[in-house]
Amino acid sequence: MAIIEASDEVFTKEVLQASTPVVVEFSKPGVNKYPDPKDGTVMEQANNSSRMNEILDALSVDYGDRVKFVRIDLDSNPESAKLCGIAEAPALFFIQRAPEFHLKFWIKKRIDAMLE
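and the corresponding C-alpha cells:
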C-alpha cells in the first residue's frame, strides 16, 4: 500500500479515526538531517530521496495491509503538527486507535526491557 500524503484537513480522519494502526512521519521539504547510527555524524539528504522515505516506502509494502502509513509536510500542516506536539522534522510516531505514543519512548521501553 502506498504512503498517504495527508493534510490538516484530513488528519483527523486519516490518522486519529483510523481503524488500523498508523505510522505517521512529519517531514519538511528540502534537506533533512539524520545522525549516522555508526558514528553519530550528521548526514544531510534531500527530503524527496531521504533514507527515511526509502525505509517507510519499503515498510508500507511489507505492512500495508495491516498498518496505514501517512506522511505530513510539517510546514504546510501546522495544525496537525501542533496537535501531535511536533515542532521539528523529521518526526516519526505510531498511533494505534487514537492513543499515541512517541516512537522514542516505545524504543526506549524495548531497550530497557532487553537490559533487565
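(Above: one complete record from the training split.) The mean pLDDT is 83.
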